[in-house]
Amino acid sequence: SPGQLTKKYSSCSTIFIDDSTVSQPNLRSTIKCVTLAIFYHIKNRDSDRSLDIFDEKSHPLTREEVPDDYYKHDPDHKHIYRFVRTLFSAAQLTAECAIVTLVYLERLLTYAEIDICPSNWKRIVLGAILLASKVWDDQAVWNVDYCQILKDITVEDMNEMERHFLELLQFNINVPASVYAKYYFDLRSLADDNNLSFLLEPLSKERAQKLEAISRLCEDKYKDLSKAAMRRSFSADNLVGIRRSNAILS
């Protein structure tokens, strides 16, 4: 073995292929397990509580017309897997990023008190992947890059969805090593129960420290940006005499 290679991160101009491409079994098996967890969330939901920002009819991802009964048919596991695999392959995201994606997705469902269902699952998954890629892969992929993958979505829509996702999470994007470890072992158990392989190794101490540090840094950055935006909004409100409405958060 030549030893540990220096990690290179993607940017909007250059994409590096590392040891976690789709050709590697650890990424394939991790995505299968993560998408299986998403599938069970959809299948076992109690209701269809949602928000307009995630509704595919209101904010379509493609120019193809969304069927009128789009909200009635649950996607199967293969359909969810293909959608996530396409994004991870095109953006060259890692297996660890898939686990962080599931962390943010489940955190959104809890904080916002909504359900992931046929009408919103694609946009919720996309929003979680977008945020996870910026945290784990150190802002490897910009919003505009996802617009090159999903060619019919606009960068304005991506930005708006990201803003809502963060607000609904109350900007809590910190992922401690203990949380990552819980999801790691839960996914291993899910894989065993469904006869799937799960070849991803637990995080090393160094990579766990990196995840905690980057997620805290990103959390602080997003909070600072939010405060700056609120200050600008307050100034505008004072000029026109209109008070800002409170964000609807759980």
Q: How would you describe this protein?
A:
- 57% of the residues lie in helices and 0% in strands.
- The chain has 250 residues and is mainly α.
- The chain has 2 domains: 22-194, Cyclin A, domain 1 (Orthogonal Bundle); 206-231.
- 31% of the residues are buried.
CATH architecture of the largest domain: Orthogonal Bundle
What is the total number of structural domains?
A: 2
- The name CATH uses for the topology of the largest domain is Cyclin A, domain 1
Secondary-structure element order, N to C: HHHHHHHH
Assign the CATH class of the largest domain. Mainly Alpha
- Uncertain ranges: 1-23, 231-250
Helix content: 55-70%
What is the H level of CATH, i.e. the homologous superfamily of the largest domain? Cyclin-like
TL;DR of this structure?
The protein is an all-alpha fold.
Task: Give me the secondary-structure topology.
Blueprint: H1 25-43, H2 77-91, H3 95-112, H4 121-136, H5 143-149, H6 155-168, H7 177-193, H8 205-240
Helix pairs in contact: 1-2, 1-3, 1-7, 2-4, 3-4, 3-7, 4-6
